[in-house]
């Protein structure tokens, strides 16, 4: 099977090539919209006005196709198709796969949505310590914190 995968670039977007804009719950939902749109080659995800929503912009170009349109934008993320090599694929549904991985925030045999504290704005943690002590840490990355349980979220990047 030959195809493409999506690369991601935090704090970057592709401008001037938008073919569709919508509100989504997370990056994965935006990715699904792109896969379902015949002209989509990449997408941008921006924080929305509501802490549980994001703005999804589908693009008809990639950063490689329009490098001059690829710019920095803090808090937003870019995802673009990248060509990959051909690999053999088994169609035997009874044979377990060991090479597949779930999208971040999804886990298990069926890649079901994770409800780990701090991973998404819809379920912020009260502190970094809470994330670590609960076992919800994913190591380096972005975490959502609502220290005062007031709805005023902060995004922390741990490196």
Automatic annotation (TrEMBL):
SUPFAM superfamilies: Hairpin loop containing domain-like. Signal peptide: none annotated. It comes from the Eukaryota. It holds the Pfam family PAN_1. Coiled coil: none annotated. Residues 2-86 form the Apple domain. This is Apple domain-containing protein. It comes from Porites lobata.
């Amino acid at each position: 099977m030959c195809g493409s995968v999506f690369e991601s670039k935090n704090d970057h977007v592709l401008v001037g090539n938008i073919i569709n804009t919508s509100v989504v719950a997370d990056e994965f939902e935006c990715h699904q919209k792109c896969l379902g749109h015949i002209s989509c080659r990449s997408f941008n995800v921006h924080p929305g006005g509501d802490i549980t929503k994001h703005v999804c912009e589908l693009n008809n170009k990639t950063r490689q196709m329009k490098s001059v349109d690829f710019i920095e934008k803090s808090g937003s993320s870019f995802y673009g198709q990248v060509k990959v090599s051909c690999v053999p694929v088994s169609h035997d549904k009874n044979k377990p796969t060991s090479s597949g991985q779930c999208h971040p925030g999804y886990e298990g045999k069926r890649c079901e949505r994770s409800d780990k504290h701090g991973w998404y704005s819809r379920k912020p943690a009260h502190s970094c310590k809470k994330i670590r002590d609960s076992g919800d840490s994913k190591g380096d990355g972005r975490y959502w914190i609502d220290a005062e349980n007031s709805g005023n979220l902060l995004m922390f990047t741990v490196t």
